[in-house]
Amino acid sequence: MNNFNNIFSLEGKIALVTGGAHGIGFEIGKALSYAGAKVVFNSSNQDSADKGVEDYAKAGVEASGFVCDVTDENAVNKMVQTIEKNYGVIDILVNNAGLIKRIPMLETSAEDFRKVVDVDLNGPFIVSKAVLPSMIKRNQGKIINICSMMSELGRENVSAYAAAKGGLKMLTRNICAEYGEANIQCNGIGPGYIATSQTAPLRERQQDGSRQPFDEFIVSRTPAARWGETDDLQGPAVFLASNASNFVNGQILYVDGGILAYIGRQP
Ligand code: NAP
Ligand code: GCO
Predict the structure, then answer these.
(1) Tell me: the pLDDT tens digits for 55-103?
(2) CA nearest to 189, candidates 121, 242, 255, 124
(3) Is 145 near ligand 1, meaning CB less than 6 Å away?
(4) Residue 3 pLDDT more than 70?
(5) Is 69 a member of any domain?
(6) CA within 13 Å, CB half, 75
(7) Contact at 8 Å (CB) between 147 and 164?
């Protein structure tokens, strides 16, 4: 049999998924494990890390959880050193940890703006900088940055988030540019509107059980006419983590049900 099926295999690989205890990161972590990788993840607190390990185990995945704030360079370096000592060099990094604040720009404090940019942009920079040296020594590595529709589009009340996710798109391209020759592939996944705890406030039903106007708007702007589910991101993540994408670099793969290609349903 030809080895084509192996092109998506992650057997023997070690994958770090930041913020991988729940939501999109959790589903991506499961998928990478099902494709053969050993998955490690971090959370910002012990309770979430512990629950994440339990939830992975329920899904048949033996994941290892760490408590580490992605904005804390010393903590990140220590976590990466511990992972490399206990499990081996990180082959795949998914920069998934993220934060959003939905506040009109003029009501956004500089502190709020800095906090969102710190987690959503500085975090991926810090973690990528920690894992790249070992990847470069081995002349191979995969970095997947979880971007957003807001890497391409603006919308009211998410100025800090859009600025951070737009920057993350360009950080993705810059890592590609700087380390592609070391056989590092750095790409992004741009999820559309996905049903997670982060978007729960946008999807809560109104008193009469009807959808919120923004919920209706998103469904009307999505050709798939639905919100995305976290498992919609599993296949794209395995593709970008595997040998199947060894000549794909600096790209943002939008998994958005077609939003970016569509003017919106006619009134
Ligand atoms: P989520 O459920 O809120 O997950 C975000 C994760 O980030 C949480 O697990 C949290 O970890 C972790 N995190 C936040 N700040 C952290 C920090 N300082 N250090 C370490 N971990 C931190 O949200 P999600 O919807 O799954 O989003 C995951 C990623 O996808 C984010 O980057 C988000 O911007 C992006 N995204 C989401 C959507 C969507 O529609 N949901 C669409 C496009 C992009 P703990 O709670 O475990 O501490
Ligand atoms: C929002 C949503 C979006 C999604 C995602 C879209 O308030 O507009 O939270 O930002 O999370 O980033 O791709």
Answers:
(1) 999 999 999 999 999 999 999 999 999 999 999 999 999 999 999 999 9
(2) 255
(3) no
(4) no
(5) yes
(6) 13
(7) no
- Ligand 2 test: best mutation among 121, 158, 215, 218, most atoms within 8 Å of CB? 158
Q: Is the CB of 102 inside a 6 Å radius of any atom of ligand 2?
A: yes
| Model confidence pLDDT, tens digit, residues 113-135 | 999 999 999 999 999 999 999 99
Cβ proximity of 142 and 91 under 8 Å: yes
In a domain, 266, yes or no: no
Give residue-wise pLDDT tens across range 214-244: 999 999 999 999 999 999 999 999 999 999 9
Under 8 Å between Cβ of 184 and 136: yes
- What is the CATH number for 82? 3.40.50.720
Confidence at residue 12, expressed as pLDDT on a 0 to 100 scale: 97
Q: Which domain holds residue 33?
A: 2-194+230-258
Instruction: Find the length of the chain.
Output: 267
Q: Whose CA is nearest to atom 2 of ligand 2?
A: 199
Mean of all residue pLDDT scores within the chain: 97
* Tokens of residue 189, six digits: 């996944």
- 10 located within any domain: yes
Q: How far is the C-alpha of 77 from the C-alpha of 155, rounded, in Å?
A: 35
Dist. CA 231–CA 227, nearest whole Å: 12
Distance CA 169, CA 60 (A): 33
Identify the DSSP state of 210: P
Task: Say how many domains are in the chain.
Answer: 1
Residue type, 11: E
Whether 166 is covered by a domain: the verdict is yes
